[in-house]
Write a structure and sequence with these properties.
heterodimer; A: Uridine Diphospho-n-acetylenolpyruvylglucosamine Reductase, domain 3; 3 domains; five-stranded antiparallel β-sheet; four-stranded antiparallel β-sheet; B: alpha+beta; Ubiquitin-like (UB roll); DNA polymerase, domain 1; 5 strands; 32% helix
């Protein structure tokens, strides 16, 4: 199957109109590394493919005066991980963006697209959740914001309504003495779908001895990427030591409801949640301590 | 289904071709333009056999719609040699016997060219990581990596006068 039409609107209003015109049969795409293939392989029926890369607001990286970050939803991974300020201030985003596919994919694939594709195993979504990212959505009745942890509703499904378009991802400024990291487990070194993945974003006390706050998210262990609030709560106010980390890892394991499939068994995935949460917490602590 | 004329630049030459809305760049290159050096391996973004350079970025041409390249600048494997003069990577692949069936070779050469132009000092680990999106089922990769390392060394030599 092929899409019947291709349009490349130059404004958000035009894009919303183009998406709305399809009554749900038109689909926005950025890098196309998921959507183009899904249409070709008859996994998604699309009437008109709406190429959003000609809309200036959809591509770009803005470091805001308050220290926050705004990513145009269609900004390619390669542009994100080459940005010196993203590298310095949001290394967890680099962790995710630099292991989605190979370089050929990274020059096209976007984090907005990864979010809208809404795979339970998506390699950027746990990071977006851990960093507290907000999805800015444009639609026929204006703009609305959705926290990324509330964006996905099931495998391949999300809160976007017909006519709606993800415009940008907004990140708050990293707190003082904070650090974040992402990792995934795959049986080879690159180019594979996560068996499990995990991200953590922690804030330490000024002397680096105590966790003040933490956000932990895990993927490929539930119908959507999961924000595990209990794992973060297990760390708040606790000393930075192995016992605290083990308690957070246990909370994350308890929240995981994995299935057994060709990539791994449910038991293996449960185990890996603990391993990866422990590992990303250690990296996040190192980064927080600079 | 409206066909459209797409105008683009391929290997330095202005080119026009007719495309269907959902057609891939790879299909346009091979079927409309006769540029059959880019190969179709997986046709889903996993194997790299269709690699081309689009506005300076390495991409899988099977994952790009032909209509997206309106006004773009493209390099395909056909543009890598200068006339009869093979690119150092092409020579190095021959000298190192870095191919058997050859289907993956154009993709590897295009991918490696982008790496070495941006990172002339890429080491073996970097080369292996960069080429992770290119699959070869014949060679076991070792000879390919050696060929790229050799080519990198040649490309670092100052041109003979």
């Amino acid at each position: 199957m092929q899409a019947r039409n291709y349009v490349a609107p130059s404004s958000i209003d035009e894009a919303v109109a183009a998406l709305q015109a399809g009554n749900g049969a038109n689909r926005a795409f950025a890098g196309g590394t998921d959507v183009i293939i899904q249409v070709r392989e008859n996994r998604r029926a699309v009437d008109t493919l709406v190429d959003i890369k000609s809309i200036p607001e959809l591509i770009g990286i803005t470091h805001k005066p308050d220290g926050g970050l705004r990513l145009g939803a269609a900004t390619p991974c390669a542009q994100i991980y080459r940005d010196p300020q993203v590298k310095a201030r949001f290394p967890a985003l680099v962790d995710s963006a630099s292991l989605i596919g190979g370089v050929q994919i990274q020059s096209r694939a976007s984090l907005g697209g990864n979010l809208c594709n809404s795979s339970p195993a998506a390699d950027s979504i746990p990071t977006l959740i851990a960093l507290g990212a907000i999805a800015e959505i444009a639609g026929p009745s204006g703009r609305r914001n959705v926290a990324v942890e509330d964006f996905c509703t099931g495998p391949g499904q999300n809160v976007l309504q017909p006519g709606e378009l993800l415009v940008a991802l907004e990140f708050p400024s990293p707190a003082a003495n904070s650090g974040a990291a992402f990792e995934r487990f795959i049986p080879r070194n690159e180019m594979d779908i996560a068996v499990v993945n995990a991200a953590a974003n922690i804030t330490l006390s000024a002397d680096g001895s105590t966790f003040q706050a933490a956000r932990i998210a895990i993927g490929a262990v539930a119908p959507t990427p999961l924000y595990v609030a209990a794992a973060g709560q297990a760390l708040a106010g606790k000393p930075v030591n192995d016992d605290s980390i083990a308690a957070a890892a246990e909370a994350a394991r308890a929240a995981a409801t994995p299935i057994t499939d060709m990539r791994g068994s449910a038991a293996q995935r449960k185990h890996l949640v603990g391993v990866l949460v422990t590992s990303v917490l250690r990296t996040a602590i190192d980064r927080a301590r600079g | 289904m409206t066909q459209k004329v797409v105008s683009t630049t391929i290997n330095g030459e202005p080119v026009q071709f007719l495309s269907e809305p959902g057609g891939s760049l790879l299909t346009a290159l091979r079927d409309e333009l006769g540029l059959t050096g880019s190969k179709e391996g997986c046709n889903n973004g996993n194997c790299g056999a269709c690699n081309v350079v689009l506005n300076g970025e390495l991409v899988n041409s099977c994952c790009v719609l032909a209509m997206e390249v309106e006004g773009a600048d493209l390099l395909t494997i056909e543009g890598v040699a200068q006339g009869d003069q093979l690119h150092p990577l092409q020579n190095s692949f021959l000298e190192n016997a870095a191919l058997q069936c050859g289907i993956c070779t154009p993709g590897f050469i295009v991918a490696a060219k982008v790496l070495l132009e941006n990172e002339p000092d890429a080491d073996e680990a970097r080369i292996r990581h960069w080429l992770a999106g290119n699959l070869c089922r014949c060679t076991g990769y070792d000879k390919i990596v050696r060929a790229v390392l050799d080519a990198a060394e040649q490309m670092r030599q100052p041109a003979a006068t």
